[in-house]
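Subject: Sanity check before I submit

Could someone independently write out the structure tokens for this chain? I want to compare against mine line by line before I put it in a report. The sequence has 77 residues.
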Amino acid sequence: MTDFAGRVSAGAAPAPRAAPAPRWATTSTNTLATDTARRLLSVLAHDITETADRIRAVAADYEEADVRAAGRIRATR
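---
Independent answer below. Compare away.
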């Protein structure tokens, strides 16, 4: 999941500069859409990373609980 977050984050990398040609009417709209997409990808990557961290923490908690339960079962034998 962390690798996936890295790939999403890479999608938010700065786009190459536009060629220095005459400014078209759609240039501002394109720039706005690109900036918005970059911000959204950055937020999404952060959320994915945070989710991966939480999954790892819960998995570690379950593993610890399993070890404790196994110890209790062994103690009753």
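---
OP: Matches mine. For the report I'm noting this point. The chain has one domain: 2-10+30-76.
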